[in-house]
Amino acid sequence: MAASTLTQVARLAGVSPATASRVLNGSARTPGPDIAERVRKAADSLGYIPNAQAQGLAKSSSGLIGLIVHDIADPYFSAIARGVQAAARHQNKMVLLATTAGGPADERAAVAAFAARRADSIVIAGSRSARTADSQGNAELAAELDRYCRNGGRVGVVGHAVVGAESDEGYHVVEVPNEALAAELARELARFHAGEFVVIAGPEGLLTSDDRVRGFQRGLADAGLPQADVLHTGFDRAGGYDAGLELAGRIGGHGGTDGDSSASSRPRLCIFAVNDVMAIGATAALRSKGLRIPRDAAIAGFDDIETLRDFRPALSTVRLPLEEIGRLAVPGPGQPEAADAAVTGEVTLRRSTEPVGEPRQAGEPAS
Question: What is the mean pLDDT of residues 210-220?
Answer without folding.
Answer: 98
